[in-house]
Fold these 3 entries.
Entry 1:
Amino acid sequence: MSDIATNKKAFRDYFFLDRWECGLALTGGEVKSIRAGEVNFGDSFAREQKGELFLFNLHINPYLQASYLNDEPDRPRKLLLHKKEIQKITSQAAQKHLTLIPTKMYFNKRGFVKVEIALGRGKKSYDKREDIKKREVERGLKRRLRMKN
């Protein structure tokens, strides 16, 4: 399992509750572009439409050698999940007022592109400050332990 991209902005801005691995409906040129690392999460999110989940605002740069066969870089992409999983995810998101956010993209053992989506609740500014304080305290402790050894 090799990571292609991680959504660092999501980890900074959200608390995550549940995570799911799902496939992504892509064209050949998009897969080649992903293999080259030309992916940007930006402000991407997932939403349910007509009983299916779609990923919005995921930017995949066009593959130059695909010429006229390239698709739009920011088009909505279908997430591949079972119907029961989609119902479970959308009901949880609606009940708790949560957002579906892609956290990382990777190739599985068989070479397929997978996206990990998570139910996230937005952090307030004071939550972000607490995270920064915890990180600084941990760094200080590690530094002191290194100096003693």
Entry 2:
Amino acid sequence: MTLVFSAWNFLGRRVCILLLVTGCSTIPNIDPSNDFSRSAWQDHHLKAKEIISWQIKGKLGFKSLNQGGSASIDWLQSKEQYQISMRGPFAAGRATIKGDNLHAQMQHGKEQYSNTPQTLALQLTGLSLPVNDLAWWVKGIPSPNQAAVSDLRLTSAGTAAEFKQNGWQLSFSRYRITDQGNLPRKIIGQRGQQSFIIVISNWRFPSN
């Protein structure tokens, strides 16, 4: 199926500008090898890793070589099961992807598709979004399904400001204290000519 995307709306243009500005900003580099930052990061990483059920609501912006847009996002995760609902520039206006790490189904308008999560995300947005890794990245921690991160930079609170994993350059900001610890509200990823930004308006924890 060929998806026809509308022109970037105002939010999409803001996302593009924000990505450019963020790329030029300077994040203080706190050496993750010193005792304090290493200890704080390990504690934070362990606590965030134990969050297995959560829900986020916010905005997703995305841009590839030929496509781009923005959408509202409602992501419900329960262990390895998830349901991601998006409403935005898609031809039918709304799409829902649900499944697990290996297989997913997508309802897009009146059509339904089955494939791997990453393939369905590519079909919908034009980006090879690693859905399984994103489930960890939105919490500000590396995915255990990929190789170790590189270029890790920490904030003074011992949370991740930046790291590279699976070919993606990732940055995390707007941390807020939640019922399950200190979690980011803005995640930016870039890989070549692909980029995304997730701005989270609300974290919820149905059961943990």
Entry 3:
Amino acid sequence: MEKYTRFKFQPCLPLGADGKRVTASVEHALVSKQAASEGMVLLKNENGALPLKKGEKIALFGKCSIAIYEGGGGSGEIHTPYKKNIFDGFVEKEQEEKISLYTGNKGFYEEYIKKETKRIAEHCSSDEINALPMGEEKIKRTYDFYNEIQICEPNLPVEYIKEASQNADTAIITIGRISTEGHDRKAVAGDYYLSDTEKTLIDNVSKHF
């Protein structure tokens, strides 16, 4: 991912043949398409897991089933008249009598997200970083800052997983990341790669489902 790091192309210096800029051009679109294709992972539909069967009992795991990332930050931010998280989407499908939804994990994730959101609001500020001149120090400090304000995956007690497995047939785990202007992903655990907590969640859910 390092070759796509945004800081290498700031502040909007001419790029490409004849010194022209690639922003919003065909060349830019092709680079974006290439980056997306290289970062895409396709799931193998083993044992006919998809599509979900009518009436199937579903349990959701992962804080991103509640706190979704509908877009990025900065120029990647999007504005919509509403947003619907994955949990609410499955609630609708249950109301349509297409699936049955286990809700035992919801309170745990909602309380955790509430506490982390409060912590971030009270302790994190980017004013000092914004005042720094463009350079390696600002790049490092910006990266560290955005890691601090992101809500990491919590350690879900295994008791929640065991109870869910007794009340649901299928588990769906949602894991997400967000990037903004000045905060590109790095090929390290907990960033582009899974964190130890995320791996433990996947292992525990897989063990009991």
